[in-house]
Model the fold of this input.
Amino acid sequence: MVLLKADCWQPKAKKMYEISIKTLFSSAHQLIGYNGVCENLHGHNWTAEVFVRTGKLDEIGLGIDYKILKGHTDSILSKLDHENINKVVPFDKINPSSENIARWLFQELSAVINTNNLKVFRVNIKETENFSASYSDESV
Ligand SMILES: [Zn+2]
Done:
């Protein structure tokens, strides 16, 4: 019998930095096909958390400036802020669940900020303090 050391469990273990920001937006949505009150139009003060990873810092020791990361995130989320999300593309065609909003923000933000050295790793969307959904790319 061969006993493995704990660090043998992570073949892709990398050393890297993870930078995160948190921001808020307020929107209404309704879940189509949901059997319950969430099918009715209702609002949330949503929280979006974004996590990016990089193995490399710039000349002053930053992975990405928090203000730049938050600025890009807020710019994308401005499409949803104070709107009925069900009327905003692509949520006029797909349910505006926290899961789908997390994937959408992940993809939109990745298109703007990903480089060879820095990638969006995870987006968490919170409807309330107790309920949230994340979308991530485990290959990052
Ligand atoms: Zn809701």
